[in-house]
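Q: Hi! First time doing this. I have a protein sequence and I read that you can turn it into a structure. Is that right? Here it is:
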Amino acid sequence: MDRFLSNAVNRIDAKGRVSVPAHFRSVVQKRGYAELYALRCLDLPAMDVGGLDLLDRYEQRIALEDPFLQTADDMSFFCHGDGTFLKLDQDGRITMTDFIREHTGISNEVAFVGRGNFFQIWEPGRLAAYG
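A: Yes, that's right. Below is the predicted 3D structure, encoded as structure tokens:
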């Protein structure tokens, strides 16, 4: 299966790293992602995470807009200014940066939620309140 499905909660280690669930790492490997792209979810306290195809999808949408209108500028700010790259280390961990923690409220644990072509990272309590 090459979709991000299911959910899991993992603890953040003392260095601020968290293990991406094995199934999600398998999808990342099958898709050949060298790095992950993450951006703030617009209407939820979560981060959307995927490969460069996630970024490409937003950039293709921006290209359809008139570059002189505010919409294109807002969309570019959203996907470029509110996005970040995450690298999986050799043990399948990513670092929870201040940028991610501030938007999500993550402190000690991370909830990973499959969304098909991408996954989200949440603070577990906020995910429970949402779902």
